[in-house]
Amino acid sequence: MESIYNPTTPGRRGMSKRDFSVITTKKPLKSLTVIKTRGSGRNNQGRITTRHKGGGSRKFYRLVSFSLPDGFEGKVEHIEYDPNRSANIARVKTKDNKYVYILATQGLKVDQIISAGPEVAIENGNRLPLKNIPIGSVIHAIELQPGKGAQIARSAGNSSQLMGRDNGYAQIRMPSGEVRLINENCTASIGVIGNEQHQNIKIGKAGINRHKGIRPSVRGVVMNAADHPHGGGDGGRHGIGGGKNHGAAPKTPWGQKTLGYKTRRRKSTNKYIVRSRHSAKRR
What we know:
283 residues, Ribosomal protein L2, domain 3
């Protein structure tokens, strides 16, 4: 469970933080960390090119492995906090005294053995090809292309389910509810990613977001018409757009449609979608 603060100030009232009880060390492995350049949202002239970015606490990037070679075997030494993602990570030591970071699953314990390969046991944290995983299994960190590394279901509390196999493809139910075909030679890890209470954390105050590197966002409707398509209008509060633009479709500051405007460009992959996430939500 996440920790809840005492309401000593208005900002503290209702604020909560993540559960650190499962973390076994506060010090990351130096060989698996690199300096993370600060993304201030500005270009080489100092002008803001990406809004709402800047500041934030200094942090190091952890080199997490999203693909493990066949025959891999190692023992979990520590469960660690990763400031760059919602999930916890596990430090795994191999037989030849090398270290890797992997995503930590629910129930993963220190000294547990992690294996990868087509013939390994169907146990929490192990990694296998989709063709060797029993139908109905709950999986995460799924590859989309063999050997490319995990791209699906990598955040805290996330998982997918193997629904079936046919003609060299596995049917995977995504976290969104979409059912998709993926090459059965792609690999995936068994289990659900840990830190499932992440979605229940209440930020509490704006200063927490500033520590994360998130700068304030101003609504377009409170701007002048010269600054945003939603701005302007006479007298008091109003909807999107003022005057003749009142009730117009929502737009970005640069006039592009948003909120419902389809931005998906890779139409060539539609053939791999068995059931859309939109139809899944209606059921």
